[in-house]
Design goal:
There is one protein chain. The chain has 600 residues and is α/β, with parallel strands linked by helices. It is built from 23 helices and 14 strands. Strands 11-10-9-13-14 form a five-stranded mixed sheet. A four-stranded parallel sheet has the order 2-1-3-4, with helices on both faces. The two termini are 38 Å apart. Bound molecules: FE2/S2 (inorganic) cluster (FES) and magnesium ion. Magnesium ion (MG) binds next to loops. The site of FE2/S2 (inorganic) cluster has 10 residues, from loops. This is Dihydroxy-acid dehydratase. InterPro entries: Dihydro-acid_dehy_C, DiOHA_6PGluconate_deHydtase_CS, ILV_EDD_C, ILV_EDD_N, IlvD/EDD_N, Sugar_Degrad_Dehydratases. It comes from Recurvomyces mirabilis.
Length: 600
């Protein structure tokens, strides 16, 4: 045992701050028979009455890994070390499955399941005798779903990420999981690789257990969980197969028991300051465009005010420090070896950019955990003064096409900038004609024949939370094969009411709300309409007259509004009845009023 663990264990021998929640089930002096009934089925698999009735904290292990959720599947192994940590610290572990979410194969889209997984986890945490919970996170939506549930329940909770995969390689070239899909599509469309070549190249991006090794949504959300203070310092970036990952699982198990004794709850950790820290960290790591949706959703469930203006105001003026795909070159292993998130936080602390006294899961502040842990590898994690890019955060964009959308500027390429943004008479702005697609099926059908040239804006609609239930990751669209064959060197600008994969390097304007299916103005756009995009003013406008807009809206409503695809399952229908827009985190507004139910 290390000195640190010894100290932690001895400090925990003091009695808990308040009586345990589980005692409402397992210690009912006025109805012993009921306590026995509650306890007896857990004894079925070998737990003893001594363990269950000893007053030790009961710790849930929320297991999100299964054969159906391969990115998180390795958690079925890691959970054994979590258990040993819990046991060593004097707790009783009860592992249970959560609703699985597999990002890449779930149809119509994995985001549909975030709120379902959230709802079901709230039910489990509320209904059973848990004093605290370890949230086994990883693949994109598993992390926000679990943090949303921890927010609603507000019992002590800590995240354990499954960790990124090892690096993928094609000969010497690094192949990033997820990111490689876009490259393979382009090579295929340009005729440079055949069908087998696509399959081979894409699967090289997935060399081991773990979540995507790029700075996609999985790496982002687990980094933000750590930045919020909801995971152990240094835990987010450890690759899944590394020994430190299993050691971290053990330490997380020890920590949650201490958190229960200290009664350190999500609402003590996830304060407004913690969310602001997470927004700033998101810029420095080059985080996914899904981050605002998920972080705003978590904030809504814990009752902290947060909106997209905060992302622009707080997050835009920070630099990109992490050289990871898709905004940079490297992958998860280099990032971890270079110091991971702790090294990024150390840079931001030096500049006084973070709320340094924000409390974290281990009872220490973000400063105490991370100050001075600078990187030794400046290829991978840059110094604050010599970043990959300045002002690298998201823009919050409005206009007459939508009320709210975001844009990730860290992925705007030099080639794109030269074509669209370097007119001295109109700096940081451009005007182009739009070609409009109604969902991914329409895009695939028409992209090769539609009137698309080197300056076209591709618009994707009908893909928001209502239109394509859950909001599809389809806004980033590949240019037609004929342009790629001619050597087009940049992604065409894309605008849409859906989302974009965190692993995509497209400079898209996405998550537009209100969406077409809510009869936002995207629904009245036609092929050939001119759009003006002004990144300085944060505006996107359709260049048609107010009268024309009014007339088109009347015609739209006379047709009964925008026609989205039908619901195919009961939950898709329920989801559409309850869900709010992407700009508000795509939560179920009615669910957010059950904040902190566990305190009652
Ligand atoms: Fe699961 Fe990327 S698809 S982490
Ligand atoms: Mg994704």
């Amino acid at each position: 045992r290390t000195k640190e663990l010894e100290e932690k264990l001895s400090s925990m021998e003091t009695s808990p701050k308040k009586s345990l929640r589980s005692s409402q089930w397992l210690n009912k002096p006025d109805d012993l028979a009921m306590s026995a009934l509650y306890a007896d089925r857990y004894m079925n698999y070998g737990l003893t009455s001594e363990e269950l009735l000893s007053g030790k904290p009961i710790i849930g292990i929320a297991q999100s890994g299964s054969d159906l959720a391969p990115c998180n599947q390795y958690h079925t192994t890691l959970a054994k070390r979590v258990r040993e940590g819990i046991r060593t610290a004097g707790g009783i572990a009860i592992e249970f499955p959560t609703h699985p979410i597999q990002e890449s194969s779930r149809r119509p889209t994995a985001t549909l399941d975030r709120n379902l997984s959230y709802l079901s986890l709230v039910e489990l945490l509320y209904a059973y005798p848990f004093d605290g919970v370890v949230l086994l996170t990883g693949c994109d939506k598993t992390t926000p779903a679990m943090l949303m549930a921890a927010s609603t329940m507000n019992i002590p909770a800590i995240c354990l990420n499954v960790g990124p995969m090892l690096n993928g390689y094609d000969r010497k070239a690094l192949i990033g999981s997820g990111t490689v899909v876009w490259k393979a599509r382009e090579l295929h469309a340009a005729g440079e690789i055949d069908d087998t070549g696509v399959f081979d190249l894409v699967t090289k991006g997935t060399p081991s257990v773990g979540h995507c090794n790029t700075m996609g949504t999985a790496s982002t959300m687990n980094a933000l969980a750590e930045a919020l203070g909801m995971a152990l310092p240094g835990s987010a970036a450890i690759p899944a197969p590394y020994r430190e990952r299993a050691q971290c699982a053990y330490k997380t198990g020890v920590q949650i028991v201490e958190m229960v004794h200290a009664d350190r709850k999500p609402s003590d950790i996830m304060t407004r300051e913690a969310f602001e820290n997470a927004i700033m960290v998101n810029t420095a790591i080059g985080g996914s465009t899904n981050a605002p949706i998920h972080l705003n959703a978590i904030a809504k469930h814990i009752g902290v005010k947060l909106d997209l203006d905060d992302w622009d105001n707080i997050g835009h003026s920070l630099p990109l420090l992490v050289n990871l795909q898709p905004a940079g070159e490297y992958l998860g292993e280099e990032y971890h070896r270079a110091g991971g998130l702790q090294a990024v936080i150390a840079e931001l602390l030096d500049q006084g950019r973070l709320h340094e006294s924000a409390l974290t899961a281990n009872g220490k502040t973000i400063r105490e955990n991370n100050a001075g842990k600078h990187s030794w590898d400046r290829r991978t994690i840059k110094e604050y003064g010599q970043p990959m890019l300045k002002d690298a955060g998201f823009l919050h964009i409005t206009g007459n096409l939508f009320d709210s959308a975001i844009m990730k500027t860290s992925v705007i390429s030099e080639e794109f900038r030269k074509v669209f943004l370097e007119d001295p008479n109109d700096p940081n702005a451009f005007e182009s004609k739009a070609v409009v697609f109604d969902g991914p099926e329409d895009y695939h059908k028409r992209i090769e024949t539609a009137e698309v040239d080197e300056r076209t804006i591709l618009v994707m609609r009908g893909t928001g939370p209502l239109g394509y239930p859950g909001a599809a990751e389809v806004v980033n669209m590949t240019a037609p094969g004929r342009l790629l064959k001619k050597g087009l060197k940049y992604s065409l600008p894309c605008i849409g009411d859906g989302r974009q994969s965190g692993t995509s390097g497209s400079p898209s304007i996405l998550n537009a709300s209100p969406e077409a299916a809510a009869n936002g103005n995207l629904a009245i756009l036609k092929d050939g309409d001119k759009l003006r995009v002004d990144l300085t003013k944060r505006k996107v406008n359709i260049l048609i007259s107010a009268d024309e807009i009014k007339q088109r809206r009347e015609e739209l409503m006379a047709r009964g509004g925008y026609k989205a695809i039908e619901s195919h399952t009961p939950y898709q229908d329920l989801f559409r009845r309850e869900v709010g827009p992407l700009s508000e985190g795509m939560v179920f507004p009615r669910a957010t009023k059950f904040q902190r139910v566990a305190q009652d």
